[in-house]
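Lecture 7 notes: from sequence to structure.
We start with the chain below.
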Amino acid sequence: MKTILLKLSGEILLEGAEILPSLLGQIKRLKNTHRFAIVIGGGNIFRARSYSGQQELNLRQPIADSVGMLATAMNGLILQEYFNQNGLPSTLLSAIPLPALANVINQTTIDDAFASDKCIIFCGGTGTPYFTTDTTAIIRALQIGATEVWKATNINYIYDGNPHVGDPNTISTCKPIKHISYTEFLQKQLKIMDLTAITLAQQHSVKIRVFNIFATNALEAVAHDLTIGSTIS
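Predicted structure tokens for the same chain:
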């Protein structure tokens, strides 16, 4: 049984009716060979680092980050409800205290969830400001003993050149990178994943795979084909 930490952007819920049934079905079909835990972002609700009103409101970064953590909890609750209502037993674990909605993240609640054959949904980020959900994903991967982190995106690969506008799939000057070392990623300062997350992954030899979650049966493809998407290792 391979344990996978799946990192989902909050934006995936903007396409919920389209992507969630597919995601659910794939996780179910992979249950005999793969055990999943999910870190969900909150960018569809609030993204602290690009919040346009932050300067006008004099919103300090720790407060903005706390709002973002709450956004991930909202998304986690939605994801848990959808999974449970559709035959995938799941539990929501939070890094910030939300006793009416979720259990706290610790080794006991993680072990109990897996012992009950539940998909874990992690929310609340790291529970502290200044860290992204990318870094959270690496931390949670270490806690659950995951062999890989799968970062689900809306692009097919990591691209060289760090394009800032448009879809990299349509920009001819951006070359896809099938494999990149942690060191080279850090040297190039590629933007697709937080550099703190890459540093932590390097320290603990956590392999990261980046792929397009909107491609047909993307999870199953990644599970069975090592050439799908990009790999950081």
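Points to note: The domain at 2-232 is CATH 3.40.1160.10 (Carbamate kinase). The chain has one domain: 2-232.
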